[in-house]
């Protein structure tokens, strides 16, 4: 149990385009989902926390207009990188917290984004 | 959330126990100790968590000192597939501040 999926697993896009990444909790409901970013040889950095049906809470320094997060259902959250630039190239990982059972977060496999 | 301190790296022989230490001297009474690991190019994998009692599951054991200022993750029989970065994180279990904040972790290398 507690499986989180992400799609796509990797994406290459041109500078200036937008990219959408989906995160799904497959076998549980997640009232809260989290988005992280990881640059090479660095640790995970939390970008934002999203609660189902409400606006995401962004960490300091993360542009909310650039990284659009939607958490429309208890099993799906999306991250859209708008007008992507090469510096946005990174490993994006989502995480979901099991609904009303415990605070344990489970992570997706990650999406590798390369912006040319 | 309280910060944790872990060694940068360690290694162990395949088949032997791997004991990964973590210091969390400023942990609060309502904060849990969580362990995750990240194998190269994958998302983090949940291992175990605990509050003050020792915990064991199919993956590992978690030993928390009585004063809760430190803990040890034990992989009883390390295999090559256990080579990964292991993160020790303390956090409250519910509420607005219950997000996982990752440090640098400890790189465990299991040698044949």
Q: Which features characterize this protein?
A:
heterodimer, A: 116 residues, mainly beta, four-stranded antiparallel beta sheet, 11 strands, 52% strand, B: 112 residues, five-stranded mixed beta sheet, 0% helix
Q: What's the short version?
A:
The complex is a heterodimer of chains A (116) and B (112). Chain A has 116 residues and is mainly β.
Task: Give a verbal description of the structure.
Chain A is an all-beta fold and 116 residues long. Chain A contains no helices and eleven strands. In chain A, the strands form two sheets. In chain A, strands 2, 4, 5, 6, 9, 10 and 11 form a seven-stranded mixed beta sheet that branches. In chain A, a hairpin with a 7-residue loop joins strand 9 and strand 10. The N and C termini of chain A lie far apart (37 Å). The model of chain A has no long low-confidence stretch (mean pLDDT 92). In chain B, the strands form two sheets. Chain B has a five-stranded mixed beta sheet, with no helix packed on it. In chain B, strands 2-7-6-5 form a four-stranded antiparallel beta sheet, with no helix packed on it. With 112 residues, chain B is an all-beta fold. In chain B, strand 3 and strand 4 form a beta hairpin. Chain B contains no helices and nine strands. The interface between A and B is medium-sized, with 23 and 24 residues.
């Amino acid at each position: 149990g507690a499986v989180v999926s992400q799609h796509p697993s990797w994406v290459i896009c041109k500078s200036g385009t937008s990219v959408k990444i989906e995160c799904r909790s497959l076998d549980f409901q997640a009232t809260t989902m989290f988005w992280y970013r990881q640059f090479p040889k660095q640790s995970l950095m939390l970008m934002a926390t999203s609660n189902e049906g409400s606006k995401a809470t962004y960490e300091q320094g993360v542009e909310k207009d650039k990284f659009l997060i939607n958490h429309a259902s208890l099993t799906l959250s999306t991250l859209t990188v708008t007008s992507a630039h090469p510096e946005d190239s990174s490993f994006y990982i989502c995480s979901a917290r099991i609904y009303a059972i415990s605070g344990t977060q489970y992570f997706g496999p990650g999406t590798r984004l390369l912006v040319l | 959330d309280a910060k944790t301190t872990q060694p940068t790296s360690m290694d162990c022989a395949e088949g032997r126990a791997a004991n990964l230490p973590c210091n969390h001297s400023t942990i609060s009474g309502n904060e849990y100790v969580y362990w995750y690991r990240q194998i190269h190019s994958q998302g983090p994998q949940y291992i175990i968590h605990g509050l003050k009692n020792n915990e064991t599951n199919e993956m590992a054991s978690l030993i928390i000192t009585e004063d809760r200022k430190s803990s040890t993750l034990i992989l009883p029989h390390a295999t090559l597939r256990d080579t990964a970065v292991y993160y020790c994180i303390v956090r409250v279990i519910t509420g607005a501040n219950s997000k996982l904040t990752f440090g640098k972790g400890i790189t465990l290398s299991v040698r044949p």
